[in-house]
Amino acid sequence: MYVVDLKNVLKRFHDGTQMKVLYDNMNFHVSEGELAVITGRKESGKSTLLNMIAAMTPPNKGKVNVLGQDLLQIKERHEWRLKNIGFITDEGCLIPYLTVKQNLLLGIPTDDRNFMKKEQEAENILVELGFTEESMNESLEGLSSKEQILATVARVFMTNPRLILADEPTKELTGKEGKEVLQRLLDFARKQKSTVVVVSDDESIISQADTYFILEECQLLEKNKAI
Ligand SMILES: Nc1ncnc2c1ncn2[C@@H]1O[C@H](COP(=O)(O)OP(=O)(O)OP(=O)(O)O)[C@@H](O)[C@H]1O
């Protein structure tokens, strides 16, 4: 079974003056545990593709099946997404004045009988991602951009998602820092056996991909990794 399976997908938007076709009769699939990397020129539809896989925007035609589920048939899309998908972008979704650890434990009351277990889990994830005791107890706004993105990654891993979608998560970082964040993300995903679809043109990530695609002329073309 494919974790992501798009068949004959058409997606178009009207920008007010004309119709823009992003994909036409496009097919794309990713197997369980794989790392698929997607690149493409600006505004070719990379973010829209991840949004479609996360059931945030439907195709105009064709089928989108994710984790064995026809997305058009899901009634509670938000719940389904929270349960199954980890979405990582460079836009912060955490609360700046809370500490990293508090952000990871958000929504779990301290008197919940699982709180201590969850706290331990949060600490383990943060240590794995390179946080120290001190930095995990620092408010988010006191951290570097690199640490803030790693905190977002940690929050996603707290939900143990089967599928991780990452949309240029390190766009705002320098080459070296960006590579480090992506590498930590991939190492952790591999350990959790999550399937990953990442939009990135970082060559060190492309070289580790199981499959590598370029979004071009309304199609996802599979490319040889030797670029
Ligand atoms: N909800 C929408 N309504 C109208 N047009 C949209 C909508 N979402 C995306 N588009 C258009 O679709 C095109 C592709 O957008 P998308 O963000 O998916 O591309 P991208 O490849 O991720 O771009 P970038 O490389 O700049 O991040 C753009 O022209 C964008 O304006």
Automatic annotation (TrEMBL):
It is found in: Cell membrane. PROSITE patterns: ABC_TRANSPORTER_2 (PS50893). GO terms for molecular function: ATP binding. InterPro entries: ABC_transporter-like_ATP-bd, ABC_transpr_LolD-like, P-loop_NTPase. Keywords: ATP-binding, Cell membrane, Membrane, Nucleotide-binding. The keyword Membrane applies. Residues 4-227 form the ABC transporter domain. Its main location: membrane. PANTHER family: HEMIN IMPORT ATP-BINDING PROTEIN HRTA-RELATED, IMPORT ATP-BINDING PROTEIN. This is ATP-binding cassette domain-containing protein. It comes from Evansella alkalicola.
